[in-house]
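Revision sheet: structure tokens.
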Amino acid sequence: MRLIPRSLSGRLLAVSALTSIAALAFAAFSIGSVLERFVIRGLDQQLDAEVAMLTRAVRPDGVLDQRLIVNLPAFEAGRRGWGWRVEGTRGRWSGGDPIVERPPPEPDRFEPPDMDMADREPRPGDGIASSGERVHVRQLSVPTGAGPVIVTAGGPRRVAMAPMREAMVPLLASLALLGGALALATAAQLRFGLRPLRRLRGAVADVRMGRARHVPTNQPDELAPLATELNSLLDQNAAQLDHARRHVSNLAHGLKTPLAALALRLAEGGRDPDGSLAAMVADIDGRVRHHLGRARAAAPGGGQRASTRLAAAVDDLVGAMRGIHAGRAVDAAISVAPELAVLVDPQDLDELLGNLLDNAWRHARSRVSVTACRKEGEVEIIVADDGPGLSPDEIALALMPGRRLDERGGGHGFGLPIAQELAELNGGQLTLSRAESGGLQAGLLLPAARK
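Predicted:
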């Protein structure tokens, strides 16, 4: 299981989600703390009033004068959790729901009995009343001649926690809605922010399909260097390809003169009685001219890649295969829509499909099928036969130039490698697999022509 997503949008969304959750959790904790202090303040005011009344009832000798005790209404009613306690060296006194466990008193500071108590503030704490109720207490140490007297007043914590819980429910709901809004905003931001990457991918696809020579350079600042490097790489590859094509063109030009001389010598009487040698020379000359034309067309300014109707090319090639392999009873099933067209030179398409069909016809027992369909910006062509087929290891060997897996017949083992090379040169690909009939299936992907 991957903890880090593979996509950039997934990573950015994960980081945003984690930071948003942490921020919302911190906000909930902070607001809860502030709210708790706010609701506790009201209880503290009641307890501080009771502590002040009890403090005034403590005499200088450390004894509580119960005649001066005037309980607040909450303490007089004897309600659960509301109670007080006074203790010192001269005795212990309590009222209401007495506090049996309270915070430890502050250490004795040995303050003089007559010190001014007006600025002394009770300190908070937690305790337990005799009824078992958890209480919030306020405690004050009163110095007397007999030593410090600890005055404690407490009230139930539920009195403060109940309104806090009521306030936290809508607060948490609001934070949850805020989190959802942040998630939607983050998703929209990622979709908008990563749009230039999607456009750049489309531009690279246009270059690969031959619809453009460069990717646009008007990119955001972060992608502009990448676009520049891509264009530099495309220019470098084009320059190297042009250099190689010039060598091919020079080689083809170098062969034209010897071929012309050979044709003239063969035309002399008696040198080629049946004309077969002249036909071979003419075939070689035609191939040289064809590759010269390809070199010129691929050169800068040579024009866009040609568009070829697929159905007509397949029909012509199937007719030719029936004549070439007239001695074999092979039936051909063709399913190619007439509107399908590919961005491939007609001669390249004939050579490419011709090699595949010739291979299928030579190995088929009784049937060869050709199907084609459009898949987004490509056309998929399937050529299958019902022959013996090839194993995965044999398929890898079949695409190696000069390797013949079947020594019967007059082939030289270059048909499938040439088809693969032509497919790749035209922006496509060739794959071999086992057909449903058990024979060999050649899957050809070629760039589709625009409608």
